[in-house]
Amino acid sequence: MRFKLLPCLGLFILLVACEQKKPVDRMNEEQLRAFADELAHKFIITDGHVDLPYRLKVKNFRLEREYMGIPVSTKDGDFDYERAKMGGLDAPFMSIYIPSSYQQQPDKGKALADSLINMINTIANQIPDKFVRANSAAEVDAAFKAGKIALPLGMENGAPIGDDLANVKYFYDRGIRYITLTHGKDNQICDSSYDTTRTWNGLSPFGKNVVAEMNKVGIMVDISHFSDSTFYQVMRISKVPCIASHSSCRAFTPGFIRNMSDDMIKLLGQKGGVIQINFGSTFLDSAVRSANEQNRKKLQALLDEKKLKMSDSLAKPLIEHFRKDNPSLYADVETVANHIDHVVKLAGIDHVGLGSDFDGVGDSLPTGLKDVSQYPNLIFVLLKRGYTESDIEKICYKNVWRVWNAVEAYSKSAK
Ligand SMILES: [Zn+2]
After folding, report:
1. Does the pLDDT at position 327 exceed 60?
2. Which domain covers residue 325, as residue numbers?
3. Does a structural domain hold residue 10?
4. Stated pTM of the model
Protein backbone atom coordinates (compact mmCIF):
# COMPACT_ATOMS: atom_id res chain seq x y z
CA MET A 1 0.00 0.00 0.00
CA ARG A 2 2.73 2.38 1.04
CA PHE A 3 4.68 1.65 -2.15
CA LYS A 4 1.69 2.26 -4.40
CA LEU A 5 0.87 5.58 -2.76
CA LEU A 6 4.33 7.08 -3.12
CA PRO A 7 4.45 7.31 -6.96
CA CYS A 8 0.88 8.70 -6.93
CA LEU A 9 1.90 11.32 -4.42
CA GLY A 10 4.93 12.23 -6.56
CA LEU A 11 2.74 12.68 -9.64
CA PHE A 12 0.29 14.79 -7.65
CA ILE A 13 3.05 17.10 -6.39
CA LEU A 14 4.41 17.43 -9.93
CA LEU A 15 0.97 18.33 -11.27
CA VAL A 16 0.41 20.93 -8.55
CA ALA A 17 3.84 22.41 -9.22
CA CYS A 18 3.12 22.62 -12.98
CA GLU A 19 -0.22 24.25 -12.23
CA GLN A 20 1.35 26.90 -10.00
CA LYS A 21 4.40 27.82 -12.03
CA LYS A 22 4.23 28.52 -15.74
CA PRO A 23 7.27 27.24 -17.61
CA VAL A 24 8.41 30.74 -18.57
CA ASP A 25 11.83 29.44 -19.62
CA ARG A 26 10.32 27.31 -22.37
CA MET A 27 8.12 30.10 -23.78
CA ASN A 28 9.02 31.76 -27.05
CA GLU A 29 8.87 35.56 -27.26
CA GLU A 30 5.28 35.65 -28.46
CA GLN A 31 4.09 33.35 -25.65
CA LEU A 32 6.03 35.36 -23.08
CA ARG A 33 4.44 38.60 -24.31
CA ALA A 34 1.00 37.00 -24.04
CA PHE A 35 1.84 35.83 -20.51
CA ALA A 36 3.03 39.34 -19.56
CA ASP A 37 -0.26 40.72 -20.83
CA GLU A 38 -2.15 38.07 -18.84
CA LEU A 39 -0.32 39.04 -15.63
CA ALA A 40 -0.92 42.76 -16.25
CA HIS A 41 -4.64 41.98 -16.17
CA LYS A 42 -4.55 39.31 -13.49
CA PHE A 43 -2.87 41.57 -10.92
CA ILE A 44 -3.96 45.01 -9.83
CA ILE A 45 -1.59 47.61 -11.24
CA THR A 46 -1.29 50.76 -9.19
CA ASP A 47 0.70 53.74 -10.42
CA GLY A 48 1.87 56.28 -7.84
CA HIS A 49 1.61 59.35 -9.99
CA VAL A 50 -0.59 60.23 -12.96
CA ASP A 51 -1.03 63.91 -13.76
CA LEU A 52 -4.43 63.64 -15.44
CA PRO A 53 -6.12 66.31 -13.25
CA TYR A 54 -3.69 69.04 -14.25
CA ARG A 55 -3.71 67.94 -17.88
CA LEU A 56 -7.50 68.32 -17.88
CA LYS A 57 -7.29 71.65 -16.07
CA VAL A 58 -4.89 72.99 -18.71
CA LYS A 59 -7.40 71.85 -21.32
CA ASN A 60 -10.11 73.87 -19.56
CA PHE A 61 -11.95 70.80 -18.44
CA ARG A 62 -15.59 71.55 -17.69
CA LEU A 63 -17.86 69.55 -15.48
CA GLU A 64 -20.56 69.13 -18.12
CA ARG A 65 -21.03 65.69 -19.57
CA GLU A 66 -20.03 66.64 -23.13
CA TYR A 67 -16.44 67.14 -22.02
CA MET A 68 -16.22 63.68 -20.55
CA GLY A 69 -14.67 62.17 -23.67
CA ILE A 70 -11.27 63.23 -22.39
CA PRO A 71 -10.64 60.58 -19.74
CA VAL A 72 -12.35 57.80 -21.71
CA SER A 73 -10.80 57.96 -25.16
CA THR A 74 -8.32 60.47 -26.52
CA LYS A 75 -5.44 60.67 -28.93
CA ASP A 76 -3.29 63.04 -26.91
CA GLY A 77 -1.89 62.69 -23.39
CA ASP A 78 -0.77 59.47 -21.76
CA PHE A 79 -3.89 58.34 -19.86
CA ASP A 80 -7.44 57.48 -20.77
CA TYR A 81 -9.85 54.69 -19.84
CA GLU A 82 -9.44 52.67 -23.04
CA ARG A 83 -5.66 52.66 -22.94
CA ALA A 84 -5.61 52.00 -19.18
CA LYS A 85 -7.78 48.92 -19.71
CA MET A 86 -5.50 47.76 -22.51
CA GLY A 87 -2.45 48.08 -20.26
CA GLY A 88 -4.07 46.57 -17.16
CA LEU A 89 -3.83 49.77 -15.10
CA ASP A 90 -6.38 49.63 -12.27
CA ALA A 91 -5.45 52.25 -9.70
CA PRO A 92 -3.64 55.33 -10.98
CA PHE A 93 -3.12 57.78 -8.12
CA MET A 94 -4.51 61.04 -9.47
CA SER A 95 -2.02 63.79 -8.73
CA ILE A 96 -3.67 66.85 -7.20
CA TYR A 97 -0.78 69.04 -8.32
CA ILE A 98 -0.37 72.51 -6.86
CA PRO A 99 2.32 74.64 -8.58
CA SER A 100 4.96 76.29 -6.39
CA SER A 101 3.56 79.71 -7.27
CA TYR A 102 0.70 79.01 -4.83
CA GLN A 103 3.04 78.79 -1.87
CA GLN A 104 2.54 82.37 -0.80
CA GLN A 105 -1.24 82.09 -1.25
CA PRO A 106 -2.39 78.93 0.55
CA ASP A 107 -6.08 79.88 0.30
CA LYS A 108 -5.85 79.92 -3.48
CA GLY A 109 -3.85 76.68 -3.34
CA LYS A 110 -6.58 75.09 -1.23
CA ALA A 111 -9.23 76.29 -3.71
CA LEU A 112 -7.22 74.82 -6.59
CA ALA A 113 -6.81 71.50 -4.74
CA ASP A 114 -10.54 71.42 -4.05
CA SER A 115 -11.38 72.11 -7.69
CA LEU A 116 -9.08 69.32 -8.92
CA ILE A 117 -10.54 66.88 -6.35
CA ASN A 118 -14.04 67.91 -7.46
CA MET A 119 -13.05 67.24 -11.06
CA ILE A 120 -11.99 63.66 -10.28
CA ASN A 121 -15.13 63.09 -8.15
CA THR A 122 -17.21 64.33 -11.09
CA ILE A 123 -15.52 61.95 -13.52
CA ALA A 124 -16.29 59.05 -11.16
CA ASN A 125 -19.87 60.23 -10.59
CA GLN A 126 -20.65 60.81 -14.23
CA ILE A 127 -19.02 57.69 -15.65
CA PRO A 128 -19.82 55.19 -12.86
CA ASP A 129 -19.58 52.17 -15.13
CA LYS A 130 -15.90 52.89 -15.79
CA PHE A 131 -14.44 54.87 -12.89
CA VAL A 132 -14.85 54.89 -9.12
CA ARG A 133 -13.11 56.94 -6.44
CA ALA A 134 -11.21 54.82 -3.91
CA ASN A 135 -9.89 55.84 -0.49
CA SER A 136 -8.28 52.59 0.65
CA ALA A 137 -6.54 49.52 -0.75
CA ALA A 138 -9.69 47.54 0.13
CA GLU A 139 -11.80 49.93 -1.96
CA VAL A 140 -9.42 49.50 -4.91
CA ASP A 141 -9.68 45.70 -4.51
CA ALA A 142 -13.48 46.00 -4.72
CA ALA A 143 -13.27 48.26 -7.79
CA PHE A 144 -10.92 45.78 -9.46
CA LYS A 145 -13.39 42.95 -8.84
CA ALA A 146 -16.13 45.10 -10.36
CA GLY A 147 -13.97 45.75 -13.45
CA LYS A 148 -13.69 49.48 -12.81
CA ILE A 149 -10.70 51.78 -12.73
CA ALA A 150 -10.20 53.11 -9.21
CA LEU A 151 -9.12 56.71 -8.77
CA PRO A 152 -7.28 57.25 -5.48
CA LEU A 153 -5.90 60.73 -4.77
CA GLY A 154 -2.46 62.05 -3.86
CA MET A 155 -1.65 65.75 -3.41
CA GLU A 156 1.61 67.05 -4.87
CA ASN A 157 2.74 70.01 -2.73
CA GLY A 158 1.59 70.72 0.81
CA ALA A 159 1.16 74.45 0.08
CA PRO A 160 -2.65 74.26 0.49
CA ILE A 161 -2.18 73.18 4.13
CA GLY A 162 -0.95 76.74 4.78
CA ASP A 163 -0.09 77.19 8.46
CA ASP A 164 -3.19 75.37 9.72
CA LEU A 165 -2.65 71.77 10.86
CA ALA A 166 -6.43 71.18 10.68
CA ASN A 167 -6.08 71.19 6.89
CA VAL A 168 -4.34 67.79 7.04
CA LYS A 169 -7.55 66.22 8.33
CA TYR A 170 -9.54 68.39 5.92
CA PHE A 171 -7.70 66.87 2.94
CA TYR A 172 -7.95 63.37 4.41
CA ASP A 173 -11.70 63.85 4.57
CA ARG A 174 -11.65 64.95 0.95
CA GLY A 175 -9.93 61.66 0.01
CA ILE A 176 -6.24 62.62 -0.19
CA ARG A 177 -4.21 59.52 0.75
CA TYR A 178 -0.67 60.76 0.19
CA ILE A 179 0.89 64.20 0.24
CA THR A 180 4.18 65.05 -1.47
CA LEU A 181 5.09 67.71 1.08
CA THR A 182 6.64 70.07 -1.46
CA HIS A 183 7.27 70.42 -5.20
CA GLY A 184 9.90 72.46 -7.05
CA LYS A 185 10.60 75.01 -4.31
CA ASP A 186 11.06 75.10 -0.55
CA ASN A 187 7.71 75.77 1.12
CA GLN A 188 6.34 76.27 4.65
CA ILE A 189 6.77 72.54 5.36
CA CYS A 190 10.20 71.55 4.03
CA ASP A 191 13.01 71.96 1.50
CA SER A 192 12.77 70.77 -2.10
CA SER A 193 15.44 68.93 -4.11
CA TYR A 194 15.15 71.47 -6.95
CA ASP A 195 15.66 74.52 -4.69
CA THR A 196 19.19 75.36 -3.56
CA THR A 197 18.06 77.86 -0.89
CA ARG A 198 17.77 75.13 1.79
CA THR A 199 15.42 77.33 3.82
CA TRP A 200 15.01 74.87 6.69
CA ASN A 201 17.83 72.39 6.18
CA GLY A 202 15.09 69.77 6.02
CA LEU A 203 11.68 70.09 7.65
CA SER A 204 10.43 73.33 9.19
CA PRO A 205 9.19 73.12 12.82
CA PHE A 206 5.64 73.25 11.37
CA GLY A 207 6.60 70.53 8.85
CA LYS A 208 7.50 68.15 11.70
CA ASN A 209 3.98 68.63 13.08
CA VAL A 210 2.53 68.05 9.60
CA VAL A 211 4.29 64.65 9.36
CA ALA A 212 3.00 63.67 12.84
CA GLU A 213 -0.52 64.78 11.90
CA MET A 214 -0.39 62.82 8.61
CA ASN A 215 0.63 59.70 10.59
CA LYS A 216 -2.26 60.35 12.95
CA VAL A 217 -5.00 60.87 10.35
CA GLY A 218 -3.72 58.19 7.93
CA ILE A 219 -2.15 60.01 4.98
CA MET A 220 1.02 58.51 3.46
CA VAL A 221 4.10 60.74 3.37
CA ASP A 222 5.45 60.90 -0.19
CA ILE A 223 9.17 61.70 -0.12
CA SER A 224 9.49 62.46 -3.88
CA HIS A 225 10.76 66.01 -4.52
CA PHE A 226 12.40 66.19 -1.07
CA SER A 227 15.90 67.50 -0.48
CA ASP A 228 18.13 64.83 1.08
CA SER A 229 17.96 66.41 4.54
CA THR A 230 14.15 66.54 4.37
CA PHE A 231 14.16 62.85 3.48
CA TYR A 232 16.44 61.84 6.37
CA GLN A 233 14.44 63.85 8.91
CA VAL A 234 11.17 62.30 7.73
CA MET A 235 12.72 58.84 7.99
CA ARG A 236 13.62 59.67 11.61
CA ILE A 237 10.25 60.99 12.72
CA SER A 238 7.59 59.16 10.69
CA LYS A 239 6.00 56.37 12.74
CA VAL A 240 4.99 54.49 9.60
CA PRO A 241 6.62 53.52 6.28
CA CYS A 242 6.67 56.11 3.46
CA ILE A 243 6.47 56.04 -0.32
CA ALA A 244 8.33 57.84 -3.07
CA SER A 245 5.40 58.16 -5.47
CA HIS A 246 7.51 59.02 -8.56
CA SER A 247 11.29 58.89 -8.13
CA SER A 248 14.08 56.87 -9.70
CA CYS A 249 17.63 55.86 -8.76
CA ARG A 250 20.31 58.56 -8.59
CA ALA A 251 22.97 55.95 -9.38
CA PHE A 252 21.95 56.25 -13.07
CA THR A 253 21.72 60.07 -12.99
CA PRO A 254 24.63 61.30 -10.84
CA GLY A 255 24.08 64.85 -9.60
CA PHE A 256 20.32 64.79 -10.24
CA ILE A 257 19.23 64.87 -6.62
CA ARG A 258 15.52 64.69 -7.44
CA ASN A 259 16.24 60.94 -7.67
CA MET A 260 17.12 58.82 -4.62
CA SER A 261 20.68 57.88 -3.67
CA ASP A 262 21.56 54.26 -2.87
CA ASP A 263 21.75 55.09 0.81
CA MET A 264 18.28 56.68 0.75
CA ILE A 265 16.78 53.69 -1.10
CA LYS A 266 18.27 51.32 1.48
CA LEU A 267 16.95 53.36 4.40
CA LEU A 268 13.48 53.74 2.83
CA GLY A 269 13.43 49.95 2.48
CA GLN A 270 14.66 49.30 6.01
CA LYS A 271 11.78 51.47 7.24
CA GLY A 272 9.33 49.37 5.22
CA GLY A 273 8.74 51.92 2.43
CA VAL A 274 8.48 51.70 -1.37
CA ILE A 275 10.10 53.65 -4.22
CA GLN A 276 7.78 53.83 -7.23
CA ILE A 277 9.97 54.26 -10.31
CA ASN A 278 9.46 57.37 -12.45
CA PHE A 279 9.41 56.58 -16.21
CA GLY A 280 10.59 60.01 -17.47
CA SER A 281 13.71 59.48 -19.63
CA THR A 282 15.50 62.31 -17.83
CA PHE A 283 14.95 60.44 -14.54
CA LEU A 284 16.36 57.24 -15.97
CA ASP A 285 19.51 57.96 -17.95
CA SER A 286 22.02 60.80 -17.49
CA ALA A 287 23.33 60.51 -21.09
CA VAL A 288 19.80 61.02 -22.43
CA ARG A 289 19.30 63.77 -19.90
CA SER A 290 22.38 65.77 -20.90
CA ALA A 291 21.88 65.30 -24.68
CA ASN A 292 18.29 66.58 -24.45
CA GLU A 293 19.35 69.43 -22.20
CA GLN A 294 21.99 70.50 -24.75
CA ASN A 295 19.38 70.36 -27.53
CA ARG A 296 17.02 72.47 -25.46
CA LYS A 297 19.71 75.12 -24.91
CA LYS A 298 20.70 75.11 -28.60
CA LEU A 299 17.09 75.61 -29.65
CA GLN A 300 16.61 78.39 -27.11
CA ALA A 301 19.74 80.17 -28.41
CA LEU A 302 18.41 79.88 -31.97
CA LEU A 303 15.06 81.37 -30.96
CA ASP A 304 16.75 84.16 -28.95
CA GLU A 305 18.85 85.02 -31.99
CA LYS A 306 15.68 85.43 -34.08
CA LYS A 307 13.94 87.19 -31.17
CA LEU A 308 11.19 84.57 -31.10
CA LYS A 309 9.41 82.86 -28.23
CA MET A 310 8.70 79.14 -28.09
CA SER A 311 4.95 79.84 -28.33
CA ASP A 312 5.16 82.24 -31.35
CA SER A 313 3.54 80.89 -34.50
CA LEU A 314 6.54 82.12 -36.53
CA ALA A 315 8.78 79.92 -34.38
CA LYS A 316 6.86 76.75 -35.24
CA PRO A 317 8.59 75.84 -38.54
CA LEU A 318 11.97 76.69 -37.02
CA ILE A 319 11.30 74.41 -34.02
CA GLU A 320 10.06 71.59 -36.25
CA HIS A 321 13.14 71.86 -38.48
CA PHE A 322 15.46 71.90 -35.46
CA ARG A 323 13.77 68.86 -33.88
CA LYS A 324 14.06 66.94 -37.16
CA ASP A 325 17.80 67.62 -37.28
CA ASN A 326 18.27 67.12 -33.52
CA PRO A 327 15.83 64.42 -32.43
CA SER A 328 15.22 63.86 -28.71
CA LEU A 329 16.78 60.80 -27.15
CA TYR A 330 14.73 58.41 -25.06
CA ALA A 331 15.42 55.77 -22.48
CA ASP A 332 13.60 52.50 -23.06
CA VAL A 333 11.67 49.88 -21.15
CA GLU A 334 14.91 47.99 -20.37
CA THR A 335 16.21 51.12 -18.62
CA VAL A 336 13.14 51.17 -16.35
CA ALA A 337 13.80 47.50 -15.55
CA ASN A 338 17.43 48.43 -14.72
CA HIS A 339 16.12 50.82 -12.05
CA ILE A 340 13.87 48.11 -10.65
CA ASP A 341 16.84 45.69 -10.58
CA HIS A 342 18.89 48.31 -8.77
CA VAL A 343 16.29 48.81 -6.02
CA VAL A 344 15.89 45.05 -5.63
CA LYS A 345 19.68 44.70 -5.25
CA LEU A 346 19.81 47.46 -2.60
CA ALA A 347 16.58 47.04 -0.66
CA GLY A 348 14.90 43.83 -1.85
CA ILE A 349 11.84 42.97 -3.93
CA ASP A 350 9.45 44.27 -1.25
CA HIS A 351 10.40 47.90 -1.75
CA VAL A 352 9.84 48.79 -5.41
CA GLY A 353 6.76 49.84 -7.39
CA LEU A 354 5.65 51.93 -10.35
CA GLY A 355 5.20 55.73 -10.42
CA SER A 356 5.23 56.63 -14.10
CA ASP A 357 4.52 60.39 -13.96
CA PHE A 358 2.30 59.83 -17.01
CA ASP A 359 0.79 63.11 -18.23
CA GLY A 360 3.46 64.90 -16.17
CA VAL A 361 6.75 64.47 -18.02
CA GLY A 362 5.69 65.55 -21.51
CA ASP A 363 7.61 64.14 -24.46
CA SER A 364 10.17 62.27 -22.38
CA LEU A 365 8.65 58.84 -21.90
CA PRO A 366 10.80 55.85 -22.79
CA THR A 367 10.42 53.75 -25.91
CA GLY A 368 7.99 50.94 -25.05
CA LEU A 369 6.37 52.85 -22.17
CA LYS A 370 4.82 55.78 -23.95
CA ASP A 371 1.41 55.59 -22.27
CA VAL A 372 -0.79 53.60 -19.89
CA SER A 373 -1.43 50.88 -22.48
CA GLN A 374 2.18 49.68 -22.27
CA TYR A 375 2.74 48.26 -18.75
CA PRO A 376 2.77 44.71 -20.24
CA ASN A 377 6.01 45.61 -22.08
CA LEU A 378 7.69 46.20 -18.71
CA ILE A 379 6.29 42.98 -17.25
CA PHE A 380 7.62 41.14 -20.33
CA VAL A 381 11.14 42.46 -19.66
CA LEU A 382 10.88 41.55 -15.96
CA LEU A 383 9.79 38.00 -16.85
CA LYS A 384 12.72 37.71 -19.26
CA ARG A 385 15.03 38.77 -16.44
CA GLY A 386 13.72 36.00 -14.18
CA TYR A 387 11.24 37.86 -11.98
CA THR A 388 8.60 35.43 -10.72
CA GLU A 389 4.83 35.94 -10.76
CA SER A 390 4.93 36.72 -7.07
CA ASP A 391 7.73 39.31 -7.59
CA ILE A 392 5.70 40.98 -10.33
CA GLU A 393 2.59 41.02 -8.15
CA LYS A 394 4.58 42.86 -5.47
CA ILE A 395 5.87 45.43 -7.96
CA CYS A 396 2.42 45.93 -9.50
CA TYR A 397 0.60 46.67 -6.23
CA LYS A 398 1.33 44.51 -3.19
CA ASN A 399 4.27 46.55 -1.92
CA VAL A 400 2.28 49.77 -2.03
CA TRP A 401 -0.74 48.06 -0.45
CA ARG A 402 1.47 46.99 2.47
CA VAL A 403 2.45 50.62 3.14
CA TRP A 404 -1.05 51.98 2.58
CA ASN A 405 -2.59 49.40 4.95
CA ALA A 406 0.11 50.00 7.58
CA VAL A 407 -0.56 53.75 7.48
CA GLU A 408 -4.30 53.15 7.79
CA ALA A 409 -3.81 50.67 10.69
CA TYR A 410 -1.47 53.02 12.56
CA SER A 411 -3.97 55.85 12.23
CA LYS A 412 -6.76 53.67 13.64
CA SER A 413 -4.60 52.62 16.60
CA ALA A 414 -3.54 56.24 17.24
CA LYS A 415 -7.15 57.43 17.60
ZN1 LIG B 1 6.45 65.58 -9.46
Report:
1. yes
2. 286-330
3. no
4. 0.91
